[in-house]
Amino acid sequence: MTSTLPEQHAKTPETSLQKVAILDCGAQYTKVIDRRVRELSIYSEILPLATPAKDLKSYAAIILSGGPNSVFADDAPDFDGEILHLGIPVLGICYGMQLVAHHMGGTVQPGDVKEFGETTIEITQENPLFKGLPNIQTVLMSHGDKVSQMPPDFIGIAHSGDILAAMMQPAKKIYGVQFHPEVELTEYGHAILENFLKTVAELKGDYPLESRLQETLSGLKQTVGKANVFVLVSGGVDSAVTAALLLKALEPDQVYALHIDTGFMRHEESDTVCKALQSLGLKHLQHLKSQDDFLNATTDIDGRIVGPLKTVTDPEEKRRIIGDTFFKLTQEAILSMNLDLNRTFIAQGTLRPDLIESGNAGVSQIAHKIKTHHNDVPLIQAQREKGLIIEPNRDWHKDEVRKIGAMLGLSDSVVQRQPFPGPGLAIRVLCTETPFKTDAFESLNHSIHQKAQGLGLQGNVLPVKSVGVQGDFRSYSFLAALSGNYPTDWEQLRNLAKEIPNHHPQINRVALVLNQTPSLPKLIHGITLTHLAPETLTLLRQIDFDVTETFRQAGLMSKISQLLSVLVPVSQPQTNRHSIALRAVVTSDYMTARPARLGSEIPWEILKHLTTHIIETYPIDWVMYDMTSKPPATVEWE
Ligand code: XMP
Q1: 528 and 545 share one domain
Q2: CB of 590 within 8 A of CB of 185?
Q3: Are residue 284 and residue 340 in the same domain, yes or no?
Q4: 437 and which of 113, 317, 392, 441 could share a cystine (Cβ 3.0–4.6 Å)?
Q5: Is the pLDDT of residue 159 over 50?
């Protein structure tokens, strides 16, 4: 049997390993389930949902993932119901629970509203799945349909209001949860999965990270042989670990590295990166300074020439141009190094979540495309067809990459670096030529204002859009800003920030304006014309540096998974200035994330000083703090 996830560098594991099968219903969270299972040192495989029951007999547990479909849709993916009679413990998650209910004689009903976001559930019956956990807990629900009648012999074990949140058939060891235990926003998700795997399915945990590292190293040796490998090193932890893996598995003379300063890097990042790489022992390292090449670059998208980049506003087009230019420069560098592209491997630092979010066919046949990542450009696809792409990190999630890096002897300053996207600051300057508006703009602005008044605040819908992920689909929606004399009770503010997108799906992001003067007009119609330009990038780079330094000096960086500043094209009428949005998120998998808490994780005093400094030093009218989780917003704004 083959996995839908090509185990590119992994040997077939020892057959004595206990295995978990994750049947992929197409959710973007499927690989997070896989990661959670592996985190418990348990070997797992992601298999197509249609895998016949007879092929699953050697597995010790089966998990049915969630998915974007409704069981009522004509093309709803189905599975072999015999799986439920194999005597193997089964956990159905979200869509998976509905499939179980459907097959065992229960009733699934289309939901009136789609349930997105955090919800409270109550455990209503003692059971092994929630063993040792509090009766009331927060979970992430992400599906419209619900199980309205359980199959015979099933017992309801948790509820959210009148919605069945979890059910079980203990004799058959079949469990179903309507929510996503695998994601961070589900408070006790980790413990729920551990209970299922270790208590219900009695798995021992015989597949630790060390053996996965050894498999990756021997797989790399086998795949590459005596060939050369070219690696683009951004300076982030992913590519540093890729380089470290290559250096560990291969001879130093086989490894060629290139660092491209795109002009979208953080303050002095390129120099720091290059020095760090040399101390890693890399012998062949080239460092290019290419901002002009990028800003003037164009690319061909489906026969249409797009660009130059300095005139482009569409985020996906920006990513495409940057990705293509990256690899054009890479190709030239390879030629200048006398490396033959027909024989040289290109190593990429791609992680598992990157592959999921770009709906990569090698990872999931069904997952909806969430966002194009720069490392999936046509040039790389061509190289992939030749079998010359290696992605030694494809098996790891972010915190696992850090652990692997430390195991390989990389210093803390390298492995603890916060992630930074390939397109860098280019996707943190929100580029626009026209205000983003719909017919409902003014009435939406009014509704948000009324909602905000509950906390004595002004509410605005700003005429800009940012990217989000609502349900299993990505969205470009409005940004809401709350301003005025705000309370410093974080929970009150957060609840409002949760409520707004829940009630108004046209809004996927909510920010708190930290400065009280100048106040925002009641309705903001216009935007500041914004493109990628050296001075705009310098402005954002300088502010980003000030923000990062302030947080670093206050000892806040270790509490925050990713801290970023976004240049937002709104200002007081006619000033042609900008606003800055601060985004500080806490996450370990980047599939879901929550904003860092103001007042506890980030002291108000520090934010207030920082805001005053930014307003007084730069052409910035408002400093905002992004209070949105992922979902409904993504970490980045574009
Ligand atoms: P989102 O915005 O999708 O981000 O919630 C999740 C993580 O991915 C990073 N990210 C990117 N990384 N190229 C990258 O290499 C990209 O185009 C890109 N977009 C987002 C983001 O910084 C976060 O860590």
Answers
A1: yes
A2: no
A3: yes
A4: 441
A5: yes
**Where are the alpha helices (H) located in 310-365, listed in sequence order?**
315-336, 352-357
- Residue 56 sits in which domain range? 19-200
Helix axis angle for 441-453 and 490-503, nearest 10°, is 150
pLDDT in tens, 551-562: 999 999 988 999
What CATH number should be reported for the domain holding residue 169? 3.40.50.880
Q: Are 172 and 165 a contacting pair, CB within 8 Å?
A: no
Note whether 486 and 518 are same-domain residues: yes
> Which atom of ligand 1 is the closest one to the Cα of 637?
2
**Residue 36 exposure: Cα atoms within 13 Å on the Cβ side:** 27
Residue 570 sits in a domain whose CATH number is 3.30.300.10
Q: What is the CATH number of the domain that holds 319?
A: 3.40.50.620
User: Which of 265, 370, 373, 429 gets mutated to test ligand 1 (max ligand atoms within 8 A of its CB)?
Assistant: 373
User: Mean pLDDT throughout 354-370?
Assistant: 49
195 and 220 fall within a common domain: no
Do the domain assignments include residue 5? no
Identify the helix (H) or strand (E) that includes residue 310.
none
Amino acid at 461: V
Q: Nearest Cα to 592, choosing from 507, 488, 472?
A: 472
Going by alpha carbons, the residue nearest to atom 4 of ligand 1 is 635
Say if 221 falls within a structural domain: yes
In sequence order, the β-bridge partners of residue 321 are none
> Active site includes 180?
yes
- CB-side exposure of 86: number of CA atoms within 13 Å? 19
CA distances from 587 to 156, 395, 449, 593, 596 (A): 31, 18, 30, 5, 9
N-term to C-term CA, the chain? 39
Which helix (H) or strand (E) element contains residue 486? none
At which of 153, 168, 200 does a domain end?
200
User: Quick check: is 381 in a domain?
Assistant: yes
- Residues 242-260: b if buried by 16+ CB within 10 A, e if exposed: bbbbbbbbbeeebbbbbbb
Name the domain count of the chain.
3
Residue 636 placed within a domain = no
| Tokens, residue 284 | 């062949």
pLDDT at residue 612 greater than cutoff 70: yes
- Which of residues 178, 200, 222 is at a domain's end? 200
- Tens of pLDDT along 391-448? 999 888 777 899 999 898 877 777 877 889 989 999 999 999 999 999 999 999 999 9
pLDDT at position 9 is 39
Residues 339, 221, single domain; the answer is yes
| 636 Cα–ligand 1 center, Å | 6
| Tokens matching residue 209 | 């990270």
Catalytic status, residue 535 = no
On the question of pLDDT at 275 being above 90, the answer is no
339 CB-near residues (< 8 Å, 6+ apart): 228, 230, 256
Q: How many helices (H) and strands (E) does the chain have?
A: 16, 25
Distance from residue 421's CA to the centre of ligand 1 (Å): 5
Lowest mean pLDDT among 4-13, 72-81, 218-227, 607-616: 4-13
Residue 94 annotated among the catalytic residues of the structure: yes
Atom nearest to 590 CA in ligand 1: 6
Which pLDDT value is given to residue 78?
A: 79
- Shared-domain flag, residues 216 and 167: no
446 and 417 housed in the same domain: no
Nearest-angstrom CA–CA distance, 470 and 630: 9
CA atoms 242, 244, 246, 252: torsion sign: positive
Please give the Cα distance from 435 to 622 (Å, whole number): 18
pLDDT at 6: 36
Query: Residue 247 in contact with residue 279, Cβ under 8 Å?
Result: no
